[in-house]
Amino acid sequence: MQxxxxxxxxxxxxxxxxxxxxxxxxxxxxxxxxxxxxxLLLGAGLHASSRRLRVVARGGRCEVQxxxxxxxxxxxxxxVAIRVGDRDEAIxxxxxxxxxxxxxxxxxxxxxxxxxxxxxxxxxxxxxxxxFLIVQKADAATESxxxxxxxxxxxxALLAAMAEQxxxxxxxxxxxSSQSKRLLYRDHRRTVVDGPFAESKELIGGFCKLQMxxxxxxxxxxxRYARILGGNVEVDLRPVGEPIAAANAR
Amino acid sequence: xxxxxELRRTLDVVFRRESPRIVAALxxxxxxxxxxxxxxxxxxxxxxxxxxxxxVPDEPGAWLLTAARxxxxxxxxxxxxxxxxxxxxxxxxRQQQQPGAGLExxxxxxxxxxxxxxxxxxxxxxxxxxxxxxxxRLVAGLTTVEIARAQLVPxxxxxxxxVRAKRTLAELGELAAPDAEQxxxxxxxxxxxxYLVFNEGYTRTAGEHWQREELCEEALRLGRVLATxxxxxxxxxxxxxxxxxxxxxxxxxxxxxxxxxxxxxxDRSRWDRAxxxxxxxxxxxxxxxxxxxxxxxxxxxxxxxxxxxxxxxATDWRRIVQLYGELLQIxxxxxxxxxxxxxxxxxxxxxxALPLVDRLAADGVLADYHLLPSVRGDLLEQLGRSSEAAExxxxxxxxxxxxxxxxxxxxxxxxxxxxxxx
Lengths: 250, 422
Fold this sequence. Notes:
heterodimer, A: alpha+beta, six-stranded antiparallel sheet, 12 strands, B: mainly alpha, Serine Threonine Protein Phosphatase 5, Tetratricopeptide repeat, 19 helices, 73% helix, elongated
């Protein structure tokens, strides 16, 4: 079973504060153990919204809104990671992505947190490829599991183009939020809310994809994760959906 | 949900995650895996009794390990008493009294223990089906029922297999990890078991289901674990790469009705890019070690040729021919020779490949293998010899054990016959 565990940004993250050393160390230990158990499939983090962009397509026109911004419709339907030369190139791909979704759509674009941003290694010399996440926002179509065939086709073509040009790192589709759970931690106490989530105003902080045998196992892992972060955090558990091109083809 | 339910679920999860490590660590104290497993179970029962009042400990894994060790030492003391070996008893007691005994969590020691357990479960003295069942039970921590369900075998059969395997190992009495000399051979067996489990999940040779994810995922997970334990073994990375790259096509290899979709016809945008990335990274890790390419590395290289091609036309078939050639040299097999012939057909044309396939057919070793007539049919069709092709596809369909595959071949036979005309 593959799950995407997605944590939300809090005020400290938005302020760009580096987490305390102890938190980084304990998190490193948990992640290390997860790698050692062969359970970590993927992980990526986003910077504060001041470094992100929203690309909004409305009636064939594409508008780019620069951060910082408060969260509004922040429920993701898919996450696509790309590796490009610079930010402008990333924006071009994000626009193509938004357009592929047809008519009205919104995607978020942000640089990925790199190991050197956390002080884990020195930034490599020379020109480093820029890695971005394109976060496709959920809409009625993705949430109901009825994505129009034309959109599916356009997305498949776009992903193929990304792959062909060596830009595509990975593409994850998330199952509709009706199949998801939201874990709200307040002072280390967990409340579980079952999807669907009509309102999702918390910005995405980052996510990891885990291979676990049961939902219970994912919840227990997330408990430990939340404990390390201080016990006040919102985390969504999203089952992995069918790959983008084929989402809801059946 | 009540607090007790909640606790029980936490305990289940923790036990599942920790039991392989506990069993592995206990092999330092007990004589056989069966006893180690029993001690781990006893620790689980103890937790079930105590945690409701004490709460879940901060380090639940360490708590379980300590409890299991106490139990193992108790057992040993009892045995020792029976044999009146006082010095050993004193030693055992001293060990137990040491403050914090059993709480040390040396990552290297954990790794060594786990590795020893893996080697033991894949011991060549066991029949292959027992090796995979035991590995899934003790190293992956699956229950007997789960193994039975995944392997499509009755629960009682699996239970018997496990009992017999544990007895065999107890009689063997060999708990030490293989020495450097034995290790290469034993590692081959471990890799074989993992790949067997993976393939069992990936393709059923008979029956309705084309793949069962659980086994694939467990094999992959254990492969990743093994790669962190033996980072200098190129073949381990090779196997991980091979499994990741094959698994990356999971979604694309079946159509809406569950029918198989051939590589060329797969929608490559459905391939799991993250899995491909992990696969290629594992392959790089193998290449960095600089040793001669073994069979898993070569097979992974082959899979990588497809993974790197965004469209089928971009596939480097010449490289594939060369890789199959290398593979044939270190692991001669008629099936590899057949695959090489397919690649030759793609790289140099069907007329170059057909004589190779004819030679294999003349050898007769692949007489029962449905892919031989299937490949031959494919080449004949490309050469415009449609009625001969239809015959071959029909023959292949009759030999295929998997129903989905059979249907695919029957359809191809039909198309070829139509093309051949009346």
